[in-house]
Hints:
Blueprint lengths: L3 E2 L14 E2 L10 E16 L5 E19 L4 E15 L5 E6 L2 E12 L2 E11 L18 E11 L5 E11 L7 E12 L4 E12 L9 H4 L8 E12 L4 E14 L6 E9 L1
Antiparallel strand pairs: 1-2, 3-4, 3-15, 4-5, 5-6, 5-7, 7-8, 8-9, 9-10, 10-11, 11-12, 12-13, 13-14, 14-15
Amino acid sequence: MIRRDMLVISLVIPLLSCSVFAGPWPRKQGKGFVQLGISTIGYDQVYGDDATKFSVGDVKDNVVQVFGDFGITDDVTVSAMLPFKFISHTPNQVKLTNSGVGDIDIAIRGNLINKNGYALSTEVQLGLPTGDKNDPNGLVLGDGEFNVAARILGGRSFYPSPLYVTVDVAYNFRSKGFSDDVFYNAEIGYGFAENRLFLIVLFSGRESTSTKPTPMNAATGLGLLTFNQEFTAIIPKALYKFDERWGVSASYATAVHGRNVAGGSVLAGGVFYEF
């Protein structure tokens, strides 16, 4: 079954990963997947708290990340993501930088239904505050808080047609005064060339549950990890498998709506290995 991108989107976090995972379909016991991915975004405008753009100077946010998942049983899959972030900001011809490990995510997914092409799973994801949150220039690598996201995922494979659709929704419980979020995704993909090539379109969004004004700080002003971040994005993607184990993926994300997020587009790609 085709895997869909794990969304850690640069329009808000800022990183669109091209890490591919199995969506609602579980890994078989003892089977796994590893990907090395990279994403990049450059922008000079940020969506403000009122969803209008303002200028911030040149910002570049590059991320290299390792993602993997593994089937503990035929119905239980665990996963982890380790990002390395490289951020720069040039506000007045003086280049400011910060780099290092970002916030690490770990998750466990349990399959409830996997029959006749239909799949339904639940997932709990834990965000660990491993990234630097105290950069004096606002070039934060992490948000400094533990968060737990509860997600439900559904999918339909139309086999023998190489068409599939997936949807998922998650509620993200945050701490340290950050507003909780609701994430949602809907994806459709179709295979070509004996299912070696998949062309995919993902619709993705994030909404804050808070009605309070956003506290302003340096990170907020740069559209980095902060409060009340929202977006709606359309993300075309492509995935090509060289054989049963190796493949590459690429994506392009742009927001059609944003709040307290970067006002640019994200290019991402990766190479993956299945075992």
